[in-house]
Hints:
The first copy, chain A, is α+β, with helices and mostly antiparallel strands. Chain A contains five helices and six strands.
Amino acid sequence: MKHSHKRDAICEVLREKKDHPTADMIYERVRERYPEISLATVYRNLAQLCAEGELIKIGAGGKERYDIDTSLHTHFFCEACGDVYDVFSPLHLSGLANAESEIGCKINFAHITFRGRCKNCSAKEA
Amino acid sequence: MKHSHKRDAICEVLREKKDHPTADMIYERVRERYPEISLATVYRNLAQLCAEGELIKIGAGGKERYDIDTSLHTHFFCEACGDVYDVFSPLHLSGLANAESEIGCKINFAHITFRGRCKNCSAKEA
DNA sequence: TTTAAAAACGATAATCATTATCGTTTTTGT
DNA sequence: ACAAAAACGATAATGATTATCGTTTTTAAA
């Protein structure tokens, strides 16, 4: 993988605002620095960075979202506004051994996501 | 919602084989009974049944899959063959209170999915 | 049991996110 | 500077899903 300014800009954008943007949100943000960038370049680089393990995709039904923090953490999806928040508090899941014996195989990974209304959306409703 | 034979057939197909089929898998199966059915009818009815709470969607990145068992349970996605299995063993997640205070709002729902290799795929590799 | 409005249907066009193609431009090691 | 490899922009293609629209079923009341 050669060095590329556009790819750098994509990573910077992801580091600057940790709101787990979609590909087109990233495209708009990078465009402020590189107005000539193509959406294809954004997708190409996102796929590449994911393959290298430098990014993770956090799709939840609709469009894919991207997170440059690849450390183990959980995401909270606001059902009202669609925003995604990080949760770093440690969680523990028990009952895995029984689940494994039920399906007769090893569980490699348990994926957890949360849903609810974020602080902003709860405040608006009140 | 009026009664419809095609919709009945879609539900039957989902009850007969609990492999969480995709829309086009359902289309193929219903076609054996109603060769004239349209894929649009399958999608229309699946959306309708989901809206009524009679089905759940269990998308995991790629195509959506559908499950007629709406009781609380977990899914295991085989990373090798893509098949989806049910897990009914009880699970318990702790650490939610800290997670809620971290993000400052109420978590309505914690969604858990498992990944690994199913029994068949593990056997093939050995 | 006709009848008429509402809902469902099939065919197919449209949408939308994402991926592939291809000719040109950058990067990088020599 | 040079040339191969990688990246790029523009745009076409793909694939899943949704929308449209004219026709057919369903259903409940006349």
